[in-house]
Input
Amino acid sequence: MLYDNLTVNEKGHLTISGIDATELAAEFGTPLYVMDEDVLRANCRTYVKAMYEFFGSESAPLYASKALSFKGIYPIVESEGMCIDVVSPGEIYTALAADFPAEKMFFHGSNKTDEDIKYGVLSGIGYFVVDNHNELEVLDRMAAELGVKQKVLLRLTVGLDPHTLEAINTGRVDSQFGVPIDTGQADDFVKAALACENISVEGFHSHVGSQIFESDSFNRQAEILIEYAARMKEETGLELKVLNIGGGLGVRYTDRDPFLDIPGRIAEIAEHLKGACDKYDVDMPVVFMEPGRSIVANAGVTLYTTGGTKEVKGYRNYVTIDGGMTDNPRFALYKAEYTVLNASRMNKSADYECTVAGRCCESGDRIAENVMIAKPERGDIIAVLTTGAYNYSMASNYNRIPRPAMVMISKGQARTVVKRESFEDLIKNEL
Ligand code: LLP
Output
């Protein structure tokens, strides 16, 4: 199986941390997002421990809320010793509603509106990750008005191109995120920030992309940023206190993806950072990383009920499910691959080649193409693995399909953490 928490019971059903997936489906209905709290916590601990060990006691992982934001996740990541990355006032509001401390939040966003900036400052956000000149000016003015000296990191683009999906590749020079070092524009940005009276520049931020397995991008990023910090120190006197190197470590969606040794990768990045600090005579900064996917993805499984099969002679077999692109748009958007199982027939051989199609009136509504599962009958439970990241957080109500419920499982118990949307919810803002 793709992950250790998945097994098969004596009935031939898939179990998730010992709980029968078909029983979860029967009790809570489908489509259903299932999150395994023990896996999620173990992922948090891996980062916290490795960052402590390799970067020192002040360093910490920030959980990237965008991967999965709902009230119940914040007490979990907080209790594991993590800070968070938030990217909108909606994410700030959700975290505050769960009593997550504002000073442990890092506020991202490439186009924060005046209202967003005010909301962030008033909420007492720990750090703004300032994306551009426009934001800098507004933030400085608002901080003055509100009597605050706001800590910031400046978002820089390092000009790297990690080999990942085009749409999630953010570190290149040609990007709407941050200010590029290569073009010389970062120099003006840093100098402008240092001239702002109500802003305290603590350091830099950079994020190279997402679902990355290769180590070269992270190693190069570390070197480029430290070399740049050394030059800025010389030119402006800026001391790099904090360096946030973003998120992006890859996870296993299918057995063709490798297992990524996260502590090993962190150790390697730390080695490159320290080497660069020695080479360019820069004090080792406090380091933050922003994992999202690698904290939540493999903790999630989505359960669907199949409507049965449709065999288009000479073409392909379809297995239809009661969800699809509305709860998981990643195939439609990125042709992202998933592992699909027939949770009701795990003891049967997976010899039925099929395309798993959702219920929207749209031919692109698919979850996976040409996967092998045990041939299902109408009513079987289909499980899609590794759906904890960028599924619920990217879900929609297209075709007026209510978003699924989410249950959190731990130590043999399941509890609802997000209620299933109702038809009333669909029209509640409509006059
Ligand atoms: N920090 C920043 C500034 C980011 O932009 C991102 C992701 C992260 C951290 C977290 O990266 P992670 O560890 O999750 O790879 N919707 C796409 C993913 C978009 C990622 C955007 N930024 C998907 O479904 O694959």
